[in-house]
Amino acid sequence: MPDTELMFVSGKGGTGKSAVTAAFAIAAARQGRTVLAVDMGTSLGLGAHLRHADLPYAPTETRPGLWAMSMDRATALDEYIKLQLHLPLGAPTKQFAGALTVLADTAPGVREIISIGKPLYEVWKGVWDLVVVDGQSLGQFQSYLRAPATIAELVPTGNVRRQAERLASTLEDPAITTITLVTNPAELPVRETIETMEILRSEGLCPPPNVIMNRFLEPSGMSLVDVDRLPAGSAREAAQMQLAMEAGQERWATEIDAPVSLPYLRGVLTPGEVAVQLADALGGRP
Amino acid sequence: MTETIIITGAGGVGKTTLAAAIGVAIAATGARTLVLTIDPAMRLADALGIEDLGDEPRPVAGVANLSAAMLDVSASWEAIIHRYAAPDVGDRLLVNPYFRAIADRFPAAQSYAAGERMAEFIETKLYDVIVVDTPPSGGGIDFFRAPARTGDLVSGKLLKWLTGSRLPGRGVIYQLAARPMLRLADSVLGGAMLSDVAAFLVDLRTMYDGLAARSRTIERYLRSAHIVIATTADPTPLHETHRFFRELGEFAITPDSIVFNRTLPSEWIDDADRPLRGIDDPDLRALAKGNLRTWASEARRQADAIDELSARYTIDVHTIRWRTPPPETLADLRSLIDASSLFGSLPGPTS
User: Fold this and answer.
1) Where exactly are the structural domains of chain B?
2) Is B185 an 8 Å CB contact of chain A?
3) Tell me, what's the ipTM?
4) Which of these, A109, A93, A84, A98, lies nearest to A159 by C-alpha position?
5) What angle do CA B248, B250, B255 make, to 5 degrees?
6) CA A134 – CA A41 distance, rounded (Å)
7) Which of A81, A239, A268 sits opposite B188 (nearest CB)?
C-alpha cells in the first residue's frame, strides 16, 4: 500500500486557493493517483472548481481517480464519537452529539480539532495516494494548525489529548505533510504570505511552507516607449494598465521565493474551466 | 446622531481600502469621521500612511476631521469583563485558560468585540460618521451574527446540559462528576476538560444580564447602520454576495448598496472590435490590439456580473474603477470615491 501524501493549501482571501487546490487534485488524478480533495469550508470554493456544486460529506468521485468531500462538523463529530466509543456507525448518538456541538462551539480548539481530524483520519486509513485540503484563509488555517497545541494546554489527559498528539505529529512530519501557500504578485498578498511563513516557521507546527504565485500576468511584449506611440483611446489605456500591472507584479514577485507560477486567466471562464486550465499549467508537477 | 457605515464582503475585494477611502471623502465634507478597522494586518494603517494605528482613535495626519482606530480583541474583551463581571469573578475569568483562548482565537469573539467597540464609539457622540471595516471570519457575516452567538454562549446552554440545572452556582461543579452523561463525555474528551469548561461558564453566566442587554443594543445599531457589500466579478466574492443577502435577511437586515470594486472601462468591450487607427507599426498594432481584446473579455465578464446582480436585487449597484498601481496616497483614496456614484448614496452627517 502506498504512503499517503497530505497537502494543505491556504492563502490570503481572493488569491485563488480553492482553484489551485482543485488544480493540484486534477493534475494528480491525471497522473493516475487516487486523490481525495477536502473542502474545509462552506463557501463556493472547491466544489464549484470540481464542477460539483454541493459536495457531500461522504467522498464522491468527481472524475476518474478524483474524489471530493466537504467538511461537515456535526457529521464529523458524530463519526469521531462513534470511533472513540467503539459504537457501530449506525448507532444513534443524536442527543449526545447535540450537546457536544455546543461544546465544540464553546471550548476553543475542539471545533478545529474535529475539522482537521477528518482529513488526517483519511490519511491514516491509507487508501489514498494524496489527500489535498482546501485549508481556507491564512488565519483560519493557523487556528487549525494550533488546535492540537491549544487542546494540549487545556486538556491534561484522555482521548482528546491523545488524538491531539497524534494529529500534531502527523502535521509536523515532512515525509507526509506539505503546506502550500497561494499568493498573487501584489503587495498585500505577498506581505501577508511572508508574515504567515514567519509565524509558521517560528511555531514549528508544520514543515516550512511552499509558495505558489497565482495570477502571474503573461508579459505583453510592449514597452513604455510603445505605449507612448499609441493613439489616445481604449488600446492605449489598456496598454498602460497592462504595463503598470507588469511593473507591479515584477516588484512584488521578487519579494518572495515562489518556485511555481500559475497564469492570470482572463475572460468568461467558469470555476471548473479555471481549475482545468491551472491543472494544465501545473503539468507534470506533484 | 452618529451615522454608521459598515463595509462587508468576501476577503480580497478591497474592503479595508474602501473603508479608508470613504472615511477620507466624508471627512472632507466637514463631518467628524472615524474609520474603525478590524483586520490585524495593519492594512488601513498602510493605506492612511500612519505607522502605529492603535486601539484608541488617532487623528490622521493631512486629513482634517478624520480619525482611525484598529480593534484590539484582547483589550476589548478585558474592558467587557471589567464592565459586566463582579470584581472577583472578573479577576478569575481573566486568568482562566478558556477565556484567554476564546478572547484570542474564537472568531465570534473577535466579531463581538468589534461590535462592542463600534457601539462604544457611537455612544461617545464624538463622531458624526463611523465607517466600520468588518472582520474577515465567516466571510464577514459573523460580525452580524456575533451578538446572538455570544448570547448563546453566555446564556449557558451547555451549562444547563452539563449540570441539568438552570442557574447553578460554583458548588455545582463538584457534582458534575456524578452525572452519567458527563462520564460518557469524559471518556470521549478525557480529563477534567468539561469540569474546567463548566467552571468557566459558571463565571461567564454571571455576566449574562449585562451582556444580553448589550447584545440587543449592538443588534439595534447594526440594524440602523448603512450596509455596503463590496465585491468583485470573481466567482467567490459573487457567491458570497448572494450569501450575504440570504443570511442578513435572517437578522432582518437589508444591505443598502453593492460596490463593484476594480472594474474596467465598459467601452473597452466595443472598442476591442474596432480597427485600431493612427499607428503604422504593424507589430505594435497587433500587440496593442491583442492586449485590448484580452482585457475587454475581462470587462465583459464584469459587465455581465454587474447586470446580473442589478437585476436580482433592487438596491443600488456602484462601481469603482480598477487602479494600477493600487491606491497608496490619500489623494489616490479620494479619487477612487470621487469617480464613483457611491459617495452620493452614503448617509451624511445629520447632527
Assistant:
1) 3-140+224-266+315-350
2) yes
3) 0.82
4) A84
5) 25
6) 8
7) A81
Instruction: Tell me if A145 is assigned to some domain.
Output: yes
Query: Could you tell me which residue, B349 or A47, shows the higher pLDDT?
Result: A47
Selecting from B264, B290, B324 the residue whose C-beta is nearest the C-beta of A244 gives B324
> In total, how many domains does chain A have?
1
Q: Is the pLDDT of residue B193 over 60?
A: yes
Flag if B325 and A48 touch (Cβ within 8 Å). Answer: no
- Assess if residue A170 is contained within a domain: yes
Q: What are the chain B neighbours of A140 within 8 Å (beta carbons)?
A: 137
Q: How many Å from the N-terminal Cα to the C-terminal Cα in chain B?
A: 5
Q: Is B271's Cβ below 8 Å from some Cβ in A?
A: yes
**Cell numbers standing for residue A244:** 503598470
Q: Report if pTM > 0.80.
A: yes
**Domain annotation covers residue A25:** yes
Identity of the highest mean pLDDT range in A134-148, A258-272, B252-266: B252-266
pLDDT, one tens digit per residue, over B16-68 is 889 989 999 999 999 999 999 876 455 556 666 556 667 789 888 888 999 99
Tell me: pLDDT of B217 over 80. Answer: yes
Q: Which residues of A touch B277 (CB under 8 A)?
A: 231
Which residues, 6+ apart, have CB-to-CB distance to B71 below 8 Å? Answer: B36, B37, B38, B55, B110, B113, B114, B117, B135
Q: Which cell numbers in the block locate residue B75?
A: 483589550
**What CATH number matches the domain at B3-140+224-266+315-350, 3.40.50.150, 2.40.50.100, 3.40.50.300, 3.40.50.1820?**
3.40.50.300
Contacts of A13 in chain B (CB under 8 A): 10-12, 136
Across the interface, do A154 and B201 touch by the CB < 8 Å criterion?
no
Nearest chain B residue to A158 by CA distance is B190
Range of the domain at A141: 6-219+257-281
What local confidence, expressed as pLDDT, does residue B40 receive?
45
Residue-wise pLDDT tens digits, A106-120: 566 677 778 888 999
Please say if the pLDDT value at position A136 is more than 90. no
**What does the alpha-carbon distance between residue A7 and residue A27 come to, in Å, rounded to a whole number?**
14
CATH of the domain at A34: 3.40.50.300
Which residue has better confidence, A180 or A102? A180
Grid cell locating B58: 488617532
B61 contact A CB<8A: no
Question: With a CB-CB cutoff of 8 Å, which residues 85-144 of chain B face chain A?
Answer: 97-98, 101-102, 105-106, 136-137, 139
Mutate to test the interface with B, among A80, A234, A242, A246 (most CBs of B within 10 A): A234
